[in-house]
Write a structure and sequence with these properties.
Blueprint: H1 3-22, H2 28-58
Helix pairs in contact: 1-2
């Protein structure tokens, strides 16, 4: 499993966890928004890491 696949899978777990929390007593919009923001950051970090790795291999 590549680093990008791992990070994308982790982001999916965060979203799934947020959805399960939203069904509980917590404020659903806050939980979902936080999880989606975290997931977006993870994906952006994964993309940045992948691009950086590709640039290093090319040089």
């Amino acid at each position: 499993m590549s680093r990008l696949e791992f990070l994308l899978e982790t982001a999916q777990y965060i979203v799934d966890f947020a959805r399960s929390l939203a069904e509980g007593p917590a404020e659903p919009r806050l939980v979902i928004t936080s999880a989606l923001a975290t997931s977006a950051l993870i994906v952006l970090i994964a993309i940045r890491s992948y691009v950086h790795e590709r640039k290093q291999r090319a040089s």
